[in-house]
Design a protein that fits this description.
With 223 residues, the chain is mainly alpha-helical. It is built from ten helices and seven strands. The strands form three sheets. A three-stranded parallel beta sheet has the order 1-2-3. Strands 4-5 form a two-stranded parallel ribbon. Strand 4, helix 7 and strand 5 form a beta-alpha-beta unit. The N and C termini lie far apart (42 Å).
Length: 223
């Protein structure tokens, strides 16, 4: 982002109905100040509440990864970070392999920093091997297991896989409902640790199950 082309892009796209902007290769929290100020000017110009537009920084260099906490906490517009594996692996001179094990540190760091900063879980990098559908689904599942909330897509065919993998399965929902019901019943009787189908359940596991249920979209037509 710069006073030149980046600022012109913001002027061209800010309008009612816009949720926010994605900013590539953010390396320093100070870079966000200019973006914040420009968005505030445009929000005022088009009649939007100042601060309503979100900024999603893509972390895709070693410097950006190192400064990710400061980037996440610099301005209130940042509510999600995004990982960019292509440029990150290029910057670090490492191979971007099919199993992506070399991304484990970067992924874990962004998930941890997002939680520490009090923002939403991050969004994972794109998958560029468009002919490798199995590899893509493996990558999506790995991102979910590691704590991401979603994954960036570069082709329409990828959207269905991401939505499916990041949605709770009927089995997961049934498990969560059973855990919450059993734990709440135990709490009512004065116990905060129980066994459910041989699994030890206390506050952390019960809250995890509750969060899973709360993340599900409301049924259509149901308030």
């Amino acid at each position: 982002f710069s006073v030149g082309q980046g600022a012109d892009d913001v002027e061209a796209i800010v309008c009612p109905g816009l949720d926010g902007i994605v900013v590539p290769k953010v390396e320093s929290e100070k870079e966000l100040d200019e973006i914040d100020a420009k968005l505030a000017t445009m929000e005022t110009r088009v009649g939007l509440p100042v601060g309503i537009l979100e900024v999603v920084p893509i972390i895709e260099t070693a410097k950006g990864l190192w400064n990710a906490y400061e980037i996440a906490t610099r301005i209130r517009r940042v509510r999600t970070l995004s990982l960019g594996a292509g440029d990150l692996t290029r910057d670090l001179s490492i191979e971007w392999s099919r199993d992506e094990r070399e991304l484990d540190y970067a992924r874990s760091r962004l998930v941890l920093i997002s939680r520490a900063a009090g923002i939403r879980p991050p969004t994972d990098s794109v998958w560029v091997r468009l002919a490798d559908d199995d590899g893509f689904e493996d990558s999506v599942r790995r991102a979910r297991r590691m704590g991401f909330q979603g994954k960036s897509c570069i082709h329409p065919k990828q959207v269905e896989v991401v939505n499916r993998v990041f949605s709770a399965s009927p089995e997961e929902l049934a498990w969560a409902q059973k855990i919450v019901a059993a734990f709440d019943a135990a709490l009512a009787k004065g116990s905060a640790s129980i066994l459910v189908d041989g699994e030890f359940v206390d506050y952390p596991l019960a809250e995890k199950a509750r969060q899973l249920l709360e993340q599900q979209p409301a049924e259509e037509g149901k308030e």
